[in-house]
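Anyone? Bumping this.
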Amino acid sequence: MKTFTHTPQTSSVLPETAPRAFGKIPVNPFSTRLTRPGQIASLNCGGHFLNPNDLIDRLQFLGGTAVIQGPHGSGKTTLLMHLSHELASRGDLVACVRLRSSRDALVVFRSIIRSRPGTTLCLDSWEQAGFMLRKIIWLAVTVRRCGLLVTCHRPTTMPVLMQCQTSPLLLKRIVEQLPNHEQRRSSLIHEADIQDAFLKCGGNIRESLYDLYDRFEQRVRLHPHTRT
Amino acid sequence: MSQSNQALVGSPTVSVHFDHSHRLYEPQARLTVRYSIDGIADDERVRAVELSVLWYTEGKGEEDLGVHFFERMTDRERLPPAVTVGSFVSSLPLSPLSYEGLIVKVRWCVRVRLFFTDGRDFVSEHVFELGEIPPAQTKPDGPAIVSV
């Protein structure tokens, strides 16, 4: 199997905390700024890096319109962002909008109006648009000869680009990617925590990372020797 | 001296020197920062450097951010490799104060961001503290409390 590494457009280093009289509290690697979509690579449920080139080829094969489907916290947004960056790095035109409610329709239509033919419109949370709005967006995108890549929890009439699923192994691989993993494994977060968080959160990776965030915070404060 | 503590392969190294020991500042204090940029490959060209002093929240869920000082340099004569060191001064505000909470933290940092001509960028953040609020503490099996 071929493996692919995640090479973000922006590289950064984990900021070190300022020294304090009571000891440095290390940066929580499960905090949102380090785990939000775009910060971590897209992996499949087997824990392998997804090949963006294969997915983009498949998107083109599907006519430029498809859905990334899966339950809450299964990596749909992460994959959407990863693919949108990949498309942009190829020189393709991309417009990304996160739908929070039908009220975001204006932003979507503004993006469509500004788009040139061939632009891929990436919409996160497709189900947030109501039935009629989805139809209108679909029509507008077709008229403008744009592509449409969306994320959705439920099945849609669009072809499926990727069905996202989770597994304890996926969560483990994500945790291994986070900064200072080796240091954390030895003292604060153990493999059993990862398994436990996954089960407790019903396989929702985002919630599992929040759970691990809490465990980290509790332990780093209860065990001062973990401070530096 | 604060340095990029996790050098990425092929990434530059940004070192920042704060004028206060322990990087601890009182509200409305004057912050003087000296920085140096090293390790830029010969085939890489920097098109802009951004210097900023900002605070951000860190924790679970939504995040917030406020930029207190910002300077963008695009003049080639002020950019690496021509110039690799520099400094700036900023007067810090009264708030928000740095805070190490359980659910949310407030951090202040100096951010040096390099933009390369190939579209990549590199961010280096160097945390300092504004004020001296003790971190939140927790009891085993109990709610979070703030130590005083």
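Late reply, but here is one note on the structure posted above: Strands of chain A lie at 10-12, 65-69, 94-98, 120-124, 147-152, 160-163.
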